Amino acid sequence: MHGRTLILLLLSMILYSCSETDKSLQNAESKLMDNPQEAYVILSEMDTLSMSETQKARRALLLAYTAAINSAPVDMAPMDLERAVCAFDGKCTSDEVKSLIIKSLFAKADNNPVMRLEILKDAEFLALQLGDRLDLAFVYLNLSNVYSDGFNGVVSEHYANKALSLFNEGGYRKHSIDARMAIVGALVVKRDYTAALDSLLSMKSNVMAYSTDSYKRYFLDTLARTLDENGRSDEAIELWHSIIDINNASANTLAHLARAYIHNGRLDSAEIIINKAIAVPHNNADEFLCRNVQYDIAERLGRKSELPLIDSLRNRAANIDYDRRKIAESSLALNKKYDSATQSAWNEIQKNKQQRIILISVFAVFSLLMLGGILFYRKKNQLLRIEHENNLLRLRNIENNLFAEERQRSETAEKVSMLFKSRFNTIDRLATAYFECRATGQEQKRLFAETKSAIDAFCSDSSIHELEEIVNTANDNLMSRFDEDYPRLSVSQRKLALYIFCGLSLQSISIFQGADLRNIYVYKSRLKATISKSSSSRKDLYLSYFN
């Protein structure tokens, strides 16, 4: 009786322990999004000795998933990692979706993008069937990163936008920022740096307000790179110096900083930075980037003897097998896994396709040769006809030019004639006035009035316009060219130049300008200095009128 009671008591304790463990796992899972640090603490402090194998697997899965969705490293035992990726195969639950996401990260670490893509497409299909929108958002975010790494910006942006929509729907600010950064990455892959910069600037306030210090540095580093790509290298350099320690920065960041110095024309600074980057431990991709920047600096500095060595180092770094990173698949649905037989069939189809293309190409070339012979004679006749028409057009243009020159000479003669008439009319008026009033008391008064009237008429806008036409006509558009070269001169400076080009004395100009003769001398000197200091190719011609 006592033995049975003891057994029941032990069973009760085990059931209670299991119940409490399940509650703790559920509690940790509920905090994964809003408070991942607390979720990690709950999971890491759980006692695994009293857990069942299923509970151990769920704990391992949630630990790994916490690390996956927050990009934070978690110290896990190898057995727990195996549980996280193997214990949920074929379960058709949201746990399997999470497990597939973790598996995709292992494929990424193994540099196997095709396997990673297949796993994520399986996760997408399962999440859609289950209606698991939150995990689906992380699947889309990872798919965006896959296609971004594979240089397919269009598809990457598509998945990033889908992830952003789901995160916004759930009100997950931090992960919405991650999705928006994925969109920026897709825009950079598409080389749409203007849109990438606009996106970064629009989200800057949210990032600075709600992100960790490390994420802020990552964001500002990305912003600095995008500023540099948009021709704002000064701002980029200033931003980099505010967030990094040059002596402890990564080779990749230093290479981009050196490139910004190149864009800014500060080649000495760029060389110092790139030498630091080369000295820092880095991978082959960063080696290729560094050597590109180093080559650009040496080339701009004219150090041609260094270029072959840098180029050989650059080419050696470029021999990395980038083909494994490129995802040729550009559709939005990849629901089949291609085994060796499928691949062989695909190769056979491609081979047959190439043979058909060769046959079609041969036939097309033969047809084009025959067609070309026919078209050649047609084209030759057409060219002869066009040449004949062009000759007729040239003759007409010559005739039109002759008539235009004749009209111009006629207009010039007419303007000169009007000038002579206007000047003789002025002399005639003054002579008539003198004849009528000489030897009378009105002689001086009448002559002064007539002279003043003539001067006022000479200073009118219409007279000024006539003078401009005369100067332009007589001196190959001298006044018009002067206006083009010195558009910022004042009205009085322009009139002074016009009177000087007409050959008027400074005394006459002082009367026409209504200024003292001493001032006219000063104005002339200033105008002459302005012309002398200008970069006009015709300034010597203008200055010849000032002598």
Give a verbal description of the structure:
Helix content is 79%, strand content 0%. The protein has 24 helices and no strands. It has helices spanning 2-30, 36-44, 53-70, 78-86, 94-109, 113-130, 133-149, 153-170, 173-189, 193-210, 213-229, 233-243, 251-263, 267-279, 284-300, 307-318, 340-437, 443-458, 461-474, 478-485, 491-501, 506-513, 517-533, 539-544. The N and C termini lie far apart (135 Å). The chain has 547 residues and is an all-alpha fold. Mean pLDDT is 78; it is low at 8-18 and 321-346. It is elongated and about 140 Å long.
End-to-end span in angstroms?
A: 135 Å
State which percent range the strand residues make up.
under 5%
Mean pLDDT, all residues: 78
* Assembly status: single chain
Key terms for this structure?
mainly alpha, 547 residues, single chain, 79% helix
